[in-house]
What does this fold into?
Amino acid sequence: MKRTDRRYIGHTENGLGFSISAGLRQGNLVFVSGAGTIGEDGRVPEALRNDTAAQTRLTLDEIDRVLREAGGSLEDAVMFTVFLGDAADFPAMNQVWAERFKDLRPTRTTVGVQLMDPDLCVEINAIAVVDPA
It folds into this structure.
C-alpha cells in the first residue's frame, strides 16, 4: 500500500500550539489520535472538569465522529487505549464504557498517567477496521 493511499481526517491546528490529524485512514485501517475534551483554547471546559463520566461520553462521541468521517463507526473499532489522569476514575469510565458498547467487545488497555491538562480526566485513542473504500 502506498503512502499516497493515506487519507487524513480533521487535520487542524489546535489550542495547544501544534497541528494534529484527528485520524488517518490507510486502506481499511483507521487510526484515531488521542481524543479528549480539550476546547479550542487548549483547556478543558469548566463544566467538564472533574467529570470523568461526561468526558468519557464526549470523547467516545468524538472518536465516533472521526470514524464516521473515515467511513466507519465506533462499532468498527477493534482496539482502544484509555489514559486516565487518575486511576481511581476507572469505575466511572468503565460504567460509561459498558453503557456504550453493551455486547460489543473491542480490546482495550487502560492506564493511569499524568495527562497534559490537569483538568483532563480521560484521553482515548483507537484503531478500527472499516469496509474498503
About this structure: The first strand starts at residue 6 and ends at 9. The helical segments are 52-69, 90-101.
